[in-house]
Predict the structure.
Amino acid sequence: MITFKIGGVHPHDNKIAKEAAIAPLAPPAKVAISMAQHLGAPATPVVAKGDKVLVGQVIGEPSGFISGFVHSSVSGTVAAVEPRADIAGNMVPHVVIDVEGDEWDPAIDRSEAIVKEIKGTREEILDKIKACGIVGMGGATFPTHVKLNPPAGKTAEFLIINGAECEPYVTADDRLMREKPEGIVIGAAIMAKVLGGCKCFICIEENKPEAIAAMQKACSGYPGIEVLKLKKKYPQGGEKQLIDAVTHRQVPSGALPIDTGCVVQNVATSYAVYEAVQKNKPLFERAMTVTGQCVPEPRNFQVRLGTPLSFVLEAAGGVPADAAKFISGGPMMGKAVANMDATTQKGSSCLLLLTEEQTRRKPESNCIRCGKCTDACPMGLEPWLLNKLSRAGGQYEALEENKIFDCIECGCCLYTCPANIPLLDMIRINKAEVMKIIRSRAKK
Amino acid sequence: MAKTIVSPAPHVHSEFSTVRLMRDVLIALAPAVLVSLYFYGWNALLLLVCCVATCMLVQFLIEKYMMKCPVTVMDCSCIVTGVLLALNLPPAAPWWVAVIGSVVAIGIAKMTFGGLGQNVFNPALVGRVFLLISFPVAMTTWTAPQSWFGGVDAFSGATPLALINEGVRNGQTVQEILAANPGLTPAQMLFARAGGSAGEASVIALLIGFVYLLCRKVIKPHIPVAIWVTVAVMTGIFSLCNPAEYTGPLFNLFTGGLMLGSIFMATDYVTSPMTDKGMIIFGVGIGVLTVLIRYFGSYPEGVSFAILIMNLTVPLLNKYCKPVRYGYGRRK
């Protein structure tokens, strides 16, 4: 069975919500939709207080090349357009809407019928994907239409659909693959067509046998699309690791996946592309896991974007008394959230609750130079050395020489360190400094 | 809701901890310890207790009263040093030799550099070599084993390597010496051979520990395997060229603490390289030096010196043997 070559760790997968079907979550009384749900410049709000909006109506327009449309996830009246703290804690413009009923834009095809026939030219499809505000739903939220439109001179040989879901606990992609396999495959076919008819692989880790079976069945009529079973290893879903596992190619340092002839898209993105192109449905809701051993009812929800995290938690049985950490995303790369009034976004795949016992960092002790961090690093770096240089202070040249900028912040080093040294914390701080120096040098 | 923790990812941790790793090393040493107790009885037990107790006490005193830092005796690393030193002593050595060796191992070789993770040389080996040079008589007086339960044949007192070394110097051939000592067949040495340090009694017991360490992912096989292959190839060439003067691969692999040293001392995290490439160079270096010392040096035994010399190269090996990086050169 295939997997990536360098490093990796095997955390317990804890997929405790995997048998809970994706349940639609009714909209709350009030939503706050962030204008910065994608990588790049925040969208510009195009509605004002008092405006009536429908489900799927545009409320934010892109303000740059790397930016995206934002749509309303509910129907009702705009109550305010104001800066609020988002999940990451950044103050960004939000459109706050008082929900009235659930009235959808009539252009959206709400039927259950699966539309197989792919119409339209490459440009028309790309415009549609852009207009529907599709971004990478694995967490990076890079605008999909940009990724599907490689710069001149570069062509895609492989489209890799990422269903690895290597983060422990998260089950949203697993459920989506089991419940909507046809849509995902058609989405992949659409993207392969846009990319000029390249070969497509749908990659799923071995711990999701039902998803693999469902996707294989759905692929039967599509000769260019193939399901690949991957060995379970974190961070398999990392773009660079997945490309290595599937094509045995490595993205050169500083280059983009397209330089190796690959485009990687998440399965949820693929399904969103299907809904956008075939059903005319913008991206305003997504599958999201609410999980953790302390959560009364671990669930998978179809949530409207802009729903407060506290509302989602309430639907999963309320806030447990022993929950100490609220994480947006998985336990390896997710962000700890301080503010439960923050709202769901296009990249919100999971809300994970951990108890203090599960998440407490043990006291740091001396490095015993066991080299486990070096063995675990999927980029072939030496976290112990980067930590040492970081703590010495000002060693930016040595840090650059030892490729600190290649760190993908997957957390394998800190996860595995027997001495509980905060390797990644140190690396993150100094990586930012080194990147700053590299950028300022490039400007000169 | 008591309080909300906000800290950067990752939010979970693996089951690895320093204590767990050290405990695994102790479990892996258990078969060799039991065999040594079986062969050598009370004195081996006394040495073991003296070594472990002294190592713990010295570390405690230094951390508490000299360094005034948190006491880390309970991380078990000093216990590992104590057990390894005890296994490296002649089973009939007096108890005070064990105590002095332990004081040197922990007090000088480990704590003067700053404690766990900071030392250049393997502490147990520094202790052993210090004793070997300071108390040559006590450290090379090998007793015939006393079996507690009977059934194991007693052999002559000298170690096999010393026997060969002396015999060859007196003009005998290797074959004559082996013929005169029927206990020196490879099969005999594999399961239970007496004459030598306490921990050298059974190669099988050490190999069981090796397999356990591999299964628990405590060590990687690179260093021991590199040592074994190097020793086997080098001694193979020498013994083919001149079988009268040079001993063969199996004899060298199974004698003189080579197994104990390669599995438990050369793989010490702190004093061995971190990358696969570095580990292989390190292991080959130990193998070459061991064979050279055994064949041409004045000491019959070479593993301890070979490991200590190669310990010195570790910072360089770490500097120049980088791991395989992602994204530099194509993989095929």
User: Anything to note?
Assistant: The radius of gyration of chain B is 21 Å. Chain B touches chain A through 44 residues (CB under 8 Å). The first helix of chain B runs from residue 18 to 40.
